[in-house]
Amino acid sequence: MSNRVKIAIIEDDLAIAQMYRMKFENEGFEVSSAENGLMGVQMVESFRPDVMLLDMMMPEMNGDEVLARVRKEPWGKDIIVMILTNMGKEEAPSILDKLNVYTYIVKAEMTPKQVAETVKKALAEEK
Prior knowledge:
alpha/beta, Rossmann fold, 5 strands
């Protein structure tokens, strides 16, 4: 059993998901990813990540629906969730405000290195 920090990436753009997977694996994290919202919920349920990077607009189920479902579960209440999307914050569903999102990141505005630093900062604050 690994003590490494687990990161779930739920992202339908496979190139972006792969880029983040490589970045986080190189940083020593354990990574699992899913390419749509429904698969994301199933993956998170079994993987039990510490951090979830969640896209908003995806097939099967949007990010806000994924997060609402995860937050209903006892194991899903403490996951650090970062929205990672190209949707501007002003366009995001208002339900996100009630679902304990750590931060909202617009993909085009941050590099994977900056996102990794944000994850590390969030984990340090949790301790």
